Amino acid sequence: MAAQMAFKPRSFSQARVRRHTRHGSGYNPEIRKTPSWMIATALVGGLALLGVAGGLFVYNYIQNEKEAEERRMRPIRSQKLLQEMRDYQATHSGDDQIEAVRLFINTKSGELEPNEQQLARLLLEALKLQEKQAGVRKKIDKLLADVRAGQNDPERVDEVAAKAGELENLLQQIDTERVEDVKREIFNARGRSAMARAKAGIAKADKMREQGEQDYASIVALYEKVDEQLAAVLVANKFNETKDLRDDIAMKMSDVAEKWAESGRGFGSVPSKDLLNPREFQPKQADEKSPWDASPGAKLILENGTLVVEGVKPDQQQKPGERAGIAFWSPSPTTAIRHYELKMRVKIIKKGFQLIARQGTGYLRHIYEMQTTDPGAKVAEESFIPVEGAVYDIVERVYGRKLHIEVTPADAGEPTPAAVDSTTAAREGGVGIQVRVGARIEIQKMEIRILK
Is 368 helix (H, G, I), strand (E, B) or coil? Predict the structure, then answer.
């Protein structure tokens, strides 16, 4: 009782102090003045702040994951989209689809990664090339249609040839499997066009023959022109039909040429030209070479109106297309002859020679042998073998594609060989005499009549 009384406050101030000490030294009497709802609100706010912070953390984590996934998927999607572009281009490869493919690529290119964008630009470059090629192919189609339409028309031969040349130039600008197909079309068009023109020319010449026209020179010239035009188209000679046409031309031309040669306007009406005249061994005005010429291996000696031809070892290299050991005559170095009658008297001093009709470059010529044989050599009984020291008169007629050769020995006791009728593929050329090394002949007389 006494202890309790000792803490009994005597005033209001003492009472406040007493209350503080009763609640501890950290007691704040003002706290009791804060309403409880405010305390609750503060607690709720704190919890809310904690929730927001946690939510932000979760949100940021999710966003980071999404961005990481986006970074991982972006190249994959880009590669996939590029493949879609390629597939689209492959399935829309026609020339009429170029714009659609270009639009598809341009529309989608923004979604590509830098590396795929570069590859997409290559696709666009390929479209530009295809567009250029499309223009070329369009020209090819147009020219090809024209060539097909005109290949059987004899009046359009030059047009077909020109457009075929354009086609060949255009083919160098495209690189597709179609090139070979177009080349075959060009080949066929050129060949068929040439044959169409030949048929028309043959028909025209045939009509002149059938009407009984006596202008043999014009008819022969027409057949010759047709044959030359056909032969000039090299691809045409690959067709079997061309061979038949040329055989037909040769036969008809030779028939008319023979009538021409035997007619009043044939060889009998033409003055002869003396080939042993010294002027024939001198270049004419504006010509570099004389009518007579010799290739390496042949030596010409003109003495007292007689021409000696010797076969010697060539002292210089032959030119391309040149044959060794040939003595050659033509009206001029640039003039070839077609239809002629050659008469000559020759003495074989040693080995003999070959008489060549329509001598020119290449292998298209006719050869008649006047070669001697070595003692003891075997020869066929029907063969004509000239002998050294003998003299022979020779007549050679060349007309159309035919040749007629007669040889008469000057010695009546020597057998006379049978006349020779033959053909030649050569269209034109001069008179040729070929000798081997060591051979020697003496031409005592030589004259020619030329049909023009």
Answer: strand
Q: How far apart are CA 413 and CA 226, in angstroms?
A: 48
pTM, rounded to two decimals: 0.68
The structure tokens listed for 138 are 């369009």
Locate 209 and state its tokens: 């023959």
Cα–chain center distance at 33: 112
- ∠ CA 371-376-379 to the nearest 5 degrees? 55
344: nearest Cα among 295, 274, 425: 274
What's the length of the chain?
452
C-alpha angle 93/99/102, rounded to 5°?
85
Q: Are 365 and 358 in contact (CB under 8 A)?
A: yes
Q: Which structure tokens are listed for 353?
A: 């020679």
CA distances from 191 to 151, 169, 179, 237 (A): 8, 19, 18, 8
Of the candidates 271, 393, 287, 266, the residue with the CA atom closest to the CA atom of residue 330: 287
Cα within 13 Å of Cα(314), Cβ side: 15
Nearest 10 degrees: CA dihedral of 272, 277, 281, 282?
-100
Angstrom distances, CA of residue 296 to CA of 137, 287, 288, 316: 54, 20, 17, 6
Tokens of 267: 């060889």
What is the rounded distance in angstroms from the CA atom of residue 403 to the CA atom of residue 409? Answer: 20
- Pairing between strand 366-371 and 326-329? unpaired
Mean pLDDT of successive 10-residue stretches along the chain, which has 452 residues: 53 58 56 62 69 71 77 84 89 86 88 86 86 83 90 91 89 77 90 94 94 89 94 90 93 94 92 96 87 94 95 81 87 89 97 93 84 71 83 96 95 91 91 95 97 89
Provide the residue type at 303 as one letter: E
- Residue 226's H or E segment, with its range, is helix 216-232
> Quick one: how many helices (H) and strands (E) in the chain?
9, 13
DSSP 380-430: -TT-----TT-EEEEEEEEETTEEEEEEEESSTTSPPPPPEEEE-S---BE
Can you read off the two tokens belonging to residue 89? 């281009």
What letter does residue 238 receive in the DSSP assignment? Answer: G
Instruction: Give the Cβ contact number of residue 210 at 10 Å.
Output: 8
Give the whole-angstrom CA distance, residue 340 versus residue 319.
27
For residues 347 and 32, give the distance between their C-alpha atoms in angstroms, rounded to a whole number: 164
Nearest to 399 by CA among 242, 243, 223, 231: 223
- Other CB atoms within 10 Å distance of the CB of residue 119: 15
Count of beta carbons in the 10 Å neighbourhood of residue 293 = 17
Coil, strand or helix at 206: helix
- Cα 267 vs. chain centroid, distance in angstroms? 46
